[in-house]
Design a protein that fits this description.
CATH topology of the largest domain: FAD/NAD(P)-binding domain
Number of domains: 3
Low-confidence stretches: 1-5
Mean pLDDT: 90
CATH superfamily of the largest domain: FAD/NAD(P)-binding domain
Helix content: 25-40%
Shape: globular
Distance between the termini: 32 Å
Strand order of the largest sheet: 5-2-1-11-23-22
Largest sheet: 6 strands, mixed
Number of strands: 27
Strand content: 15-25%
Radius of gyration: 22 Å
Number of helices: 11
CATH class of the largest domain: Alpha Beta
């Protein structure tokens, strides 16, 4: 769909999934191998635009307009010498080395694009992850998810419609605007803080028949602490910050059922909520389960060797949340974080070049640089890790700057320094010309 036509004499490199890791990888492959016509490079994705996934909670709360930061795959492909193929992968033929792409239909049910197949010599799976409902009754039917931009926008629309209705009728009924968020990881925590900010902004912009105190935000976590698996100091600081924002945090509450009226937990608690968000646990997309005989684990992740090649096919790499890669020196896998996807993309780039040159491949060594959690304008907490300083707890303004720098690093990988500087300047003026919250 963008770039030059396929040349059968060149190696065909196909990346499936335009998330953070996949898009960084295909951009760098295009700039190096594609620009010099040393390989045909293609990206397959089922959507036409990209937004850095850690920003979806801001889109959901309305504190970010997705159109300001989304990237068009076609434009990125044209500028960086790769092809963009719009479509959803629904199968794989390893013998013929073909990626099967499902037909696409419009809202009227008319076929827009037929079923197709994309040939490859080297395939990279970078399809990310989705929320795992663990088969709990009612979750799929009655919860909203934040896996995609469309889902985040749907939540923001539901929230704004509920606010407008409550304002027009003189104020909300009991529980009409209450929100229950399941999952005490980064997504649930950050969404809670952004919603606290959104309630105050909507009130300030004229929806004053709804008071911020009319909305109760509940954060439900099955473990005994927030951010399980991260340092206890980070969990405690985050919990204190959320309580200052009047977010009700329910720890050690395992959800057993979700209905239209609310959420039931294993200890008999029922949390009524008009809006219910599921942000607990992840899994790789279901279509990966035993796809074409590749080895997967119980959450559909492709199991890879230290070189990030799949265990049963050396022509297929996997990176990011959709792969299961053992953390060296640990009895667990590399965690599903943006920093891991970024590091994996860098190694796969090197290994594809080494593969094409007939050189031995390098093994992946995950470097944990710490974790950061943003509570919007109220606070940012986290810990930084390094060889010299060990683990250092940071909070407030410094932590916020480090958090923002992670997104800038992603943009630098995609656009380069000059364009990122222009984007920062444009964003500076745009924020002063537009409302602080999306109102449509």
């Amino acid at each position: 769909m963008a770039g030059s036509a396929t040349d059968a004499s060149r190696p065909r490199i196909v990346v499936v999934g335009g998330g953070a890791g996949g898009l960084e990888l295909v951009t760098r492959l295009g700039r190096s191998l594609g620009r010099k016509r040393r390989a045909d490079v293609a990206l397959i994705d089922s959507t036409r635009t990209h937004l850095w996934k850690p920003l979806l909670h801001e889109v959901a709360a309305g504190t970010m307009d997705s159109h300001d930061d989304e990237l068009d795959y076609l434009a990125q492909a044209s500028e960086n010498h790769f092809r963009f193929v719009l479509g959803r992968m629904d199968g794989l033929d390893r013998e013929s080395r073909l990626v099967r792409i499902a037909p696409m239909y419009n809202a009227r049910g008319e076929e827009v694009m037929p079923a197709r197949a994309e040939p490859y010599d080297v395939l990279v799976m970078a399809v990310g992850s989705v929320c795992n409902d663990f088969g709990i009754p009612g979750v799929a039917e009655h919860c909203l998810f934040l896996d995609t931009m469309a889902q985040a926008q749907a939540f923001q629309n539901r929230l704004l419609e509920a606010y407008l209705h409550a304002h027009a009728t003189g104020g909300p009924e009991e529980g009409q605007l209450d929100v229950a968020i399941v999952g005490g990881g980064a997504t649930g925590i950050e969404l809670s803080a952004q919603l606290h900010q959104a309630t105050r902004l909507l009130h300030a912009y004229g929806l004053d028949k709804v008071k911020p105190s009319d909305i109760k935000i509940h954060l439900i976590e099955a473990s005994e602490s927030l951010l399980p698996g991260l340092p206890g100091r980070l969990s405690s600081a985050t919990l204190a910050a959320l309580r200052r924002l009047d977010v009700e945090v329910l720890l050690a509450h395992r959800v057993v059922e979700v209905t239209r009226e609310g959420i039931s937990t294993h200890n008999g608690r029922f949390i009524p909520a008009a809006l219910r968000v599921w942000a607990a646990g992840i899994k790789a997309p279901d279509f990966l389960k035993d796809v074409a005989g590749l080895e997967t684990n119980r959450i559909n992740q492709l199991i890879v060797t230290p070189t990030l090649q799949t265990t049963r096919d050396s022509a297929i790499f996997a990176l990011g949340d959709c792969c299961a890669c053992q953390w060296q020196g640990q009895e667990k896998n590399v965690p599903p974080r943006a920093q891991a996807a970024h590091q994996m993309a860098s190694l796969v780039l090197k290994n594809i070049n080494r593969l094409l040159a007939g050189k031995p491949l390098q093994e992946y060594r995950y470097q944990d640089y710490g974790s950061l959690v943003s509570l919007g304008k109220y606070s940012t907490v986290g810990n930084l890790m390094g060889n010299l300083m060990g683990s250092v707890m940071i909070e407030g303004f410094i932590a916020r700057l480090v958090y923002l720098s992670l997104y800038k690093m992603h943009q630098l990988a995609l656009f380069g320094g000059a364009r990122v500087s222009l984007l920062m300047l444009a964003n500076f003026f745009r924020r002063r010309l537009r409302p602080e919250i999306k109102l449509h």
